[in-house]
Structures are given as C-alpha cells and as structure tokens.
Design brief:
Elements: E1 2-6, E2 9-16, E3 24-28, H1 39-42, E4 51-54, H2 71-88, E5 90-96, H3 98-109, E6 116-120, H4 130-138, H5 140-147, H6 159-172, H7 174-185, E7 200-205, H8 213-222, E8 226-231, H9 238-241, H10 243-255
C-alpha cells in the first residue's frame, strides 16, 4: 500500500501496473468496504492499464476523520479521492454505491482532469431504508445479515465471497459503516446531472436490489453522454460476484 498526505491525514491506496499503457483508473469502494472489493479489477487478471484502489478515511489502512454523517463526510471522502487521483494522475473514476456518490461529487465540484466516469451499483440519489438505518445503530449483525440476503449485495455468491464480505464489514466496524450509509442516505444530485461533462457508464448487476437497474437507466439518460450496461447473474457487488463480465463491460467502455 502507498499513502498520500492531505488535509492533515494519510489516505492509503494500492497501485497496480503503474508502467502500463492507457489511462490510470481509480476505483472507489462503497459503504463498509475497502480497496479489496476491487481485487479482481486491480489484480493480475484485471485491466492491463494502470489501476488504483483507495481506502476512504476510516476504512482499511487510511486514517479516519471526525465528521458528521452527510455532506461533511462526503466532502472528506471526496478529498481522499481527489488527493489519490492527483498523486496517481488518474483519468478514469469508478465508484461503487457510496463510492459513486464520491465520484459524482468530485466530477461536479472539483477541478480534476477526468476523462470518463463509471458508476457501478450506484445512483444520483441513494436513499437507505429506515429499518436498515435502525439496525445499523442498534443491531449491527442484523444489518449485516440483511445486506447479505438474496439480491442485495450478492445474487448467488460462493460461500467464501459472502464470508469475506461479512468479515470486511465487521473489520470496518459499526460506527464507520453506519456513517457511510447515513451519508449515502442524504446524497441527492438529481438536479445537477446535466453538469456531468464527461462520458458516463452506469454499470449494474441484473439483480441489484439496493440500487436497481432503473437507477442506472435514469443516470444514463440524465447526463449528457451516458450509457448503461447490465452484468448478468449479479447484484450490488457485481465486480466481486461476476468479475469477468464486469471487467468486460468496463473494458468496452474505456476502449470505446
């Protein structure tokens, strides 16, 4: 892992194939995750171009921030991504779920030379159901169990994938994971999508019950230059559950 210092803290990231040709792609995880959710994308079977995966503040190896859920936390996470993007000359931003909100905020509000954007299992508004917000505050294991139910994070995963995901969210911890979901719940840029001035791919698992296909169809039509792609037999974490199909859709977009 490498780190970049900014805003009084250190943000960790993993950089793969730095000497390869093509644009550097920066991957941003979602609520309760870390850079490891992108292992199939930055690993040896991933893209041949340079790939970077970040740990947002309070996740994985990155220092935490004392921010309230909502815009303040989203701004801090955006600072993380901007710092890593500048340190690695990333030209493509890929965000999953809350990571997609971070990517949109960076594109809409920060001066970055971004060429393309991918929102994977994300949306312009990311409302979180009330009972999940309650469980995150009062019964973390129940929240994790619900998230790992059918057609939420996964459609039909191997047991090892489900257990790895559970372990990661437990390692991130209840407080940071709850902060993530509450921040996502308060995110809404539907009235600003016409200002997204780069090509955008809305990439979604066929069975995603958290951010459904309709969210992505809306994104693709609301931005000036958008398209949608669906990963078969996958749910919210399509990049984990069906990495080959996810990678093929991503490669088609980047090469197109």
């Amino acid at each position: 892992m490498e780190t970049v210092g900014h805003d009084g803290r250190e943000t960790a990231y993993r950089l793969a194939t730095p000497g390869a040709a093509g644009p550097t792609t920066l991957f941003v995880h979602g609520s309760g995750g870390t850079h490891r959710v992108w292992a199939a994308q930055y690993g040896p079977k991933g893209p041949v171009h340079p790939a970077v995966a970040v740990d947002l503040s309070g996740h994985g190896a990155s220092a935490d921030v004392a921010t309230a859920p909502g815009p303040e936390t989203l701004a801090a996470y955006t600072d993380d991504v901007v710092a890593v993007a500048r340190a690695t000359d990333a030209a493509v931003l890929v965000g999953n779920s809350l990571g997609g909100a971070v990517v949109l905020r960076a594109v809409l509000e920060r001066e970055l030379p971004v060429e393309r954007v991918v929102l994977a299992g994300s949306g312009a508004k990311l409302a979180v159901r009330e009972d999940l917000r309650t469980w995150l505050a009062e019964d973390f294991e129940r929240a994790l169990s619900w998230l790992h139910g059918e057609d939420r994070l996964f459609h039909d995963p191997a047991d090892r994938l489900r257990e790895r995901s559970l372990a990661q969210m437990r390692a991130t911890g209840r407080a940071v994971t709850e902060r993530d979901f509450l921040t996502a719940h308060r995110f809404d840029v539907r009235d600003r999508l016409d200002a997204v001035d780069v090509p955008l791919l809305a990439l979604v698992g066929e069975h995603d019950g958290l951010t459904p296909v309709a969210y992505h169809e809306y994104l693709a039509t609301a931005v000036p230059d958008g398209e949608v792609a669906v990963v078969p037999d996958a749910a919210h974490l399509a990049m984990v559950e069906r990495p080959a199909a996810f990678g093929a859709a991503l490669a088609d977009f980047l090469e197109g």
